[in-house]
Amino acid sequence: MERQQLIKTLDQLHADLSQTEHVDPETLARLLAITSDIQRILSERPETSMEEVSPVSSSLKDVLLKFEADHPELATSVGKVADALAAMGF
Question: How far apart are CA 31 and CA 49, in angstroms?
Answer without folding.
Answer: 21
